[in-house]
Structure formats: structure tokens, C-alpha cells
Amino acid sequence: MANKPKTKYRAVWLSDIHLGTKACRVDRLVAFLQSISCDYLYLLGDVIDLWSLKRKWYWPTSHSDVIRRLLKRDVKGTKIVFVPGNHDELFREYNGLHFGGVEVSNVAYHTTADGKRVMMIHGDMFDHIVKNYTLITHLGDWAYDWLLAINIGLNAVRRRLGWGYWSLAAYVKRRVKKVISFVSGYEQSVAKYARQHKADMIFCGHIHRPDLREIDGVMYGNCGDWVESCSALVEHLDGRIELLRFGMHAEDGSERLPHIDEHAEAQLEVSGVAHSEALARLSMEFAADLTASGEHRAVFDDEASSDSSVLRPSAESDIHTATSKDSAGDLVAVGD
User: Fold this and answer.
1) Are 245 and 231 in contact (CB under 8 A)?
2) Mean pLDDT of all residues in the chain?
3) Coil, helix or strand for 180?
4) What is the pLDDT of residues 54-76, one digit of tens each?
5) What is the pLDDT averaged over residues 101-106?
6) What is the torsion angle, in degrees rounded to the nearest 10, for the CA atoms of residue 323, residue 326, residue 332 and residue 335?
7) CA 74 to chain centre
8) Where are the alpha helices (DSSP H) in the chain?
9) What domains can you pick out in the chain, each with its CATH number?
10) pTM for this model (two decimals)
11) 2: pLDDT confidence band, cut at 50, 70 and 90?
């Protein structure tokens, strides 16, 4: 039987995958990656949940497979840019470096087929709790993981009863007025930031709320996540931007991507090994994958202009990434 043709996009944006957690819907992500091809792939942070891995080690072989699938796209000609988030902020120290075919950049830019300038960030710089209250942030992260763990058992029962997916975490967030107020303020701040940087659009993640709409003359896009929303932003070949959703708590209640039994997945063996050593092993595994995907190299463009440096070696590149000097400023929240 012939394989189904892949859907071709010019660019794809993903964020908040949270590899290294049981909540990551790796089955749906793999199905999505298998169904598409693209010229540019942007990973807008929290791809690997280092916070969760430090608390409790969890790394199924399927999570390593996702990393390999992402890196293999460089071999196939896809340009990959990784914008680290707060859960994988360790990688922010490598701003401006190229590993194999992957560019690490704290802030990045993309030009659409119809000439629109897209700014890309993770977005945690506009979350004042994350920036200023570390203990509260980690307690909130633990509480969210707890709600997601309850979700697994709850929805297993709902599936047996023939009912659709229902998210306890999303329900709680919708009912808390302060959360609604925070999201609104967050979106307004992100849009304001884009205007200050003369961008037509700004794409981000962080708050796990997929969205695509205009805010005060700026197109605001949020990739959502691969924990509950299972969503992505894509650019069609003509420059049109679309938000894709894949079930979970989509309005139609459908589950268009397959489900894998989490308990059937094999885990990386770390029995009796300290978390720090396990993280070191994982880093070595990533380094091997990066090396296999292309020449391992660090690139510093001393001749770059003051506002951006060209990622691709070609003069016709339409991807630009912020220099270290600019990125330092970019990690400061917008004032009133």
C-alpha cells in the first residue's frame, strides 16, 4: 500500500513539546511530523523539560526518536531554528551557535512568502511570575504536572465509556479569573513588543494556549503545546498562516492522531544513577545525534549587522537571528 503523500508547508512552528515528561503526547507529535514536509522548522522553546527531568527522570526511547526525527530534517534540506524557553533555558547560553544544521537563537526572525516579517520568541520574558518568583513558578509547575497526572487516569475511564477527551487542567485555568487576566495581559505585551521591533507578526509559546489573531495591528500567534492542545502554526507556500489543531480538547472533540499506550514504552535505563549523571548521558546522546545530522560546528558571525545575522550561507536567506547583543535586550519585558 502506497504511503499517503506528505502535506508540504513552507514553514512550521512548534513549541512546548515537553520531552522528558509523561504528559508529552509524543505519539501525536510523531504522527504529525510523519505527515508533513517543510522548508523551515522553528522550535519555540520548552522542547525538552529540564525542570521535570531534574525532579524525576523520565526519558522513553520514543522521546529520543522525536529528537532524531527533528534532526533528520536538516539532512533533507529543512532549516531548523531552536529558540529556547524557560524549561530548557540552559540552551540560551549557546545563543548564536550552529550545531549541525540547528541554529540556537534566543530571538529569531522569518520572512513569509508574501514579505511579512515574523518575530519569534518563547515568551516567558513577559511572565513576571517566572521572571521574579522562582519558588512560586516551580510550585505552579508541580501543580500543573499533578493535574495532568490526574487527567491520564480520568481520560482512561472516559475512553472506556466512549466519551471524548476532557482536560481538568484547562478547565481549572478557564475558571480562574486571574489566569484569564494574565493571558490577556501577556498577549497584549507580546504584541506591543512586536510593534517596537517593527514586526508584522510575532509567534511564541509558553502559556499553552494556541491562538492566531490580530492584536492592535500585529498578527499574534501562539503555537500552543504538545501536552494537551497538540497544535502547530504553519505557513502555506503562498505565505498564508494557519493554526492546526489535532483533537484532544478541540471543539469537535475529535482525535485525529493515534494513541499509544504510555506503559508500553521502554525507558532509558538509569537505575541507581544520579539525575545529574543521567542528564549528562542524555546530553551525550543529543551530541551524537547532532553530529550524525551534519558537521558539528560553532559559528560566530563577526561581520553581522547590529540588528541581525544571516543564518543560511546563501545570500538569498530569509531567516535572520538576533545577535547576542540584541538578545540580551530582548530578554527584558516591555514597560508601560
Assistant:
1) yes
2) 73
3) helix
4) 888 999 999 999 998 888 887 77
5) 93
6) -150
7) 17
8) 26-35, 50-55, 61-75, 128-132, 134-160, 168-175, 177-196, 275-293, 324-330
9) 7-123+171-321 (3.60.21.10)
10) 0.68
11) low
